[in-house]
Amino acid sequence: MTSALPSITALRDACTTIAEEAAREIMRIYAGDLGARDKADKSPVTDADHAAEAVILAGLRRLTPETVIIAEEEMAAGRVPTLRDGQPFWLVDPLDGTKEFIKRNGEFTVNIALIEDARPILGIVLAPATDTLWRGARGLGADKREGSGAFTPIRTRTPPSEGLTACASRSHAIYSDLDIWFRNNNLTVADRVQAGSSLKFCLIAEGKADIYPRFGPTNEWDTAAAQGVLEAAGGEVVTTDDRPLLYGKPRFSNPHFIARSLAAR
Question: 222 labelled as ligand-binding?
C-alpha cells in the first residue's frame, strides 16, 4: 500500500459506506421506472447504473483524489483513464447483473475493488435487494453483514464427500460446456446453484458453494470486487491454465476463469 492512501481498514470501512449510498440510489429507482435501454454494444443499462456510479465516483474521489478509477459506465462512454505504472487503481461496477435488475429478481450487486500490483487487495460486494454486504481485504480476512446486523467472519469450506456444489450464471450458463469441463478435470458435482452477478463468488466465499467456472466473456469490473472477497475468505480465481486472474489487462477484458475454494482444486 502506498503512503498516499489511507490504511486498508479505513479504505474498507469508507467503501462500505459508499456502497451503501449507491445501493440506496439503486433501490430508489428499482421501486419505479428503471429507465432501461441498450448501450452501443447492445448490453442493457438503466438509470440505476448511472446513478449508482455517480455516487461511487464522487465517494472514491473524495477518499483518494489521486487514484485512477476504472468504472463500467465511464468506460462505455469512452472516458478511459490512463493507468499509472505501479500505482493502485479502483475498479467499479455500480450495478452488476443489470439483466437481473430489469427482471426484478433481486440478484444484482454493487461492486468496488482496489487493485494493487494487478491483484485485488480490497473488495466490497453489496446486494441491495436483500441488504447483504460481503467484503474482503488483504490482511483483514472476509466478513458478511445482513441488514442492520453485525459483520461476521466468513470462510470457504472443504467440499463434502459426495461432491462439489457448483455455481452457474443465471443468464449465461451453458451446462453442456460445464459438464465436459468437470468430467475432464475429474471433478464430481453433487449440486448446482444458479445466481446472478457477482453473488456466485460470494456463495463460495461464505462456504455455501465450492466452484464457479466461467467460460464466457467478462470484464475486469465484473469480477474484481468479488475476487477480493473470495481470496480474503481463503479462495482463489485462476485462469484455465491455473494462473491467477490479474487486472489492468488490455481493454480490461478477462479470459475464461475458475473461482473456487482452495479445497476444490
Answer: yes
